[in-house]
Amino acid sequence: MSVTLTAQEKATLRTAAYGAVSLLAAAGASTSKPHKIATSGSIALSSATGLVGHVLAEKSGRIALSGSSVAELADQVLPALTAAMSLLGKHDPVEAENFRNTITVAVDTARLFQTQPNPTMADMTDKITGALTAA
Asked: Most buried one in 5, 36, 70, 84, CB count within 10 A?
């Protein structure tokens, strides 16, 4: 790896990635199986490669996400997704695209566990995608 990220930058990537999966699980909680959404999305994240894969695989302790509603979680995760894309874009545009693809695969994988069409999950997916392209 030729890019060196600070501890804070790595935390931003992890918060964004695992937060996106958490957001989708929270959005799908009423009509799907949130534990299966979270598990499948996390497995997809653990399959990442490159710099992104190394950062997501590091044993760094707990991801700092808090809140008692989807809105509070989104207030943390969506800006983190945009910040992650911005910081990776400055360091290595190839890794920025790798991050975007990793999140997209995780979201698509997590959505496989929808038990019925869910407009709430579709809307959250759109918000996650929007945050990834806002940088």
From this structure: 84
